[in-house]
What we know:
Layout: E1 5-8, H1 11-22, H2 30-51, E2 65-70, E3 75-80, H3 87-94, H4 102-112, H5 116-121, E4 133-141, E5 149-153, E6 158-163, E7 170-177, H6 192-203, E8 210-218, E9 223-230, H7 247-258, E10 264-272, E11 278-285, E12 301-305, E13 308-314, E14 326-331, H8 340-345, H9 347-370, H10 372-392, H11 397-403, E15 405-408, E16 415-416, H12 417-422, E17 430-435, H13 439-443, H14 449-454, E18 459-461, H15 464-470, E19 475-476, E20 479-483, H16 494-510, H17 512-521, E21 525-530, E22 539-543, H18 550-558, E23 568-572, H19 577-588, H20 593-609, H21 617-631
Helix pairs in contact: 2-6, 9-10, 9-11, 10-11, 10-15, 19-20, 20-21
Magnesium ion binds at residues 34, 37-38, 125.
Amino acid sequence: MSAVETHEFQAETRQLLELMVHSVYSEKEIFLRELISNSSDALDKVRLQAAQSHDKPLDVSDLHIRLAVDPAERTLSISDNGIGMNKDDVVHLLGTIAKSGTKDFMSKLKEKGDVNDLIGQFGIGFYSSFIVATEVTVDSLRYDSDEAVLWTSNGDGTYTVGEGSRTERGTTITLKLREKDEENGLRDFTSFWTLKDIVKKHSDFIRYPIRMQRTVTQGDPPVTTVEDETLNSMKALWSRPKDEVSEEEYKEFYQHISKDWHEPLETLKVKAEGTFEYEALLFIPSKAGMDLMMQDHRGGLQLYVRRVLISDRCEELLPTYLRFIRGVVDASDLPLNLSRELLQKERQIEQIRKHLVRKVCDALKTMKTDHPEKFQQFWEQFGRLLKEGIYQDAARRDNLLELAQFHSTKGDEWVSLEAYKERMAEGQEAIYFLAGENLSQLRESPHLETFTKKGVEVLLFTEPVDEVWLSVVHEFQGMKFMSAAAGELELGSDEEKKKAQEDREKQNKEMATFLSWMGSKLEGVKEVRVSSRLHESPACLVTEENGVSPHFEKLMKAMGQEMPPQPRILEVNPDHPFVQKLQSGYEANKDSAELGTLASVLYSLALLAEGGELAKPAEFTRQVAQALSKGL
Ligand code: ADP
Ligand code: MG
């Protein structure tokens, strides 16, 4: 390799380093967790490489991490025989920040004042070494290269790249440590005991040995020997009894496997014995990642067979609607050479999946009963996904419906179907819902006028998935789901309903010629009839009994799905002066062109009220302006 080159850090990286060097963090020791985690990733990667064919087979018989110190020089080094990096790698991986989010990072830092949890989130673990070091060098040899590379920086604006000295595959990171300052969290990172303590605390579960030499003086006369010790237990966290593992250990493990910096909301330990044996450790995250709703989001759990990692993301272990769950499954009786195709066919995997789904549903049910606030938090993050399950998973449909929470016309609190049922109005025979784009629009909808007046609660559905699951769920505990904007509607006691229906029929008869004239003037309207829904508004549009909402129709079309046009019915409020004047005008002069225009204004008003879009908005404004100027 040629001479040493000096590079400038990318601007974002520079700012970040500045922060690392100058801010005051409570837990400075977390740099070690980050560097060990990177080494562990590098060891995983070389093992995956080794599984593929190479001219020279890769030796992965003793994958490990080693810590070494020089107290006199105040250095600490972390080495691994993992995948290694070449020159391009160090420039790209260490000179830039992959995830562009430094601004976000800095504002969060100001908010929280602590960098600890933020480091993992932004994929900047490596830079945390500058919290404790005045100079960092990286000496690395990539598995497919024969030239080692040396990267150095003291955390100011630049770094250098030159020739490294490693002769064996892997990476050595050497830190020139700052002065010890216990009060400010700078422990003695050259002491065996300090390092062992930190490894135990943050990295015990790492499944490669983390080794370090220890000087032992024994006997009389004293003899000093050097022993190699493995600092971490490498114990599979999932097989340890829950009461022996601290919350902190679970949290660190979760953060390691999920690369999520939040604490998990819930930790679930599962053990199945009998015909198929397995152990699992599942985590429900506390926040939904940005990518969770993307079509191509990949879920998946780590799959081990008798402690050997088989797959880092086995998607077959959970249905897609539980793709937010992270964790590990360790099965006893699966073959070690499982290919993807085999995984899909393997009956045991299916049994494990079923069992896990049941465990998750049970845990959520318990959470809902015992920790309602926590459950609300869960629902806000992942409820949408569980609703996919209502549609997908017929076997769990009832459980999921019981968990489901909705917004409604009664206040801002979530309501479950059970709670809705309990507080139904007298004589109410259905669970009413209204589907649309957003809550504030729905709450204003004319379709709700009579419900509000009669005190009947209506569930408000704003997620596309709501109308999807409704296509397979027709009732809940004997109660039918009915749209507040579809079909004919009567509310109240049997007697009230009967009377209202008779009144309406009478009105429809009396207004028959007027209504059918109006229908003839309006394109795309199947029928015009008297409404039982309205009190304040002059008109609204409804769909046929089992029709989908116009909102859903729009969404499906936007996704390129074919949809037959949904026939709409215009319902008018016979007590509204606009409707009354229109009718008397019509009776005085059946051929007035102006009245035809006013009928279409009425229709447009109904369409606007439900958040619909006018085909010709400019025409509508001209019509309204003209009508208004007449009245002045
Ligand atoms: P992250 O681990 O989230 O990707 P880091 O800042 O911790 O972010 O590391 C940046 C990148 O540097 C890693 O993704 C990896 O590609 C590379 N890297 C860091 N340490 C090592 C190592 N010991 N061996 C090989 N590559 C490493
Ligand atoms: Mg990292």
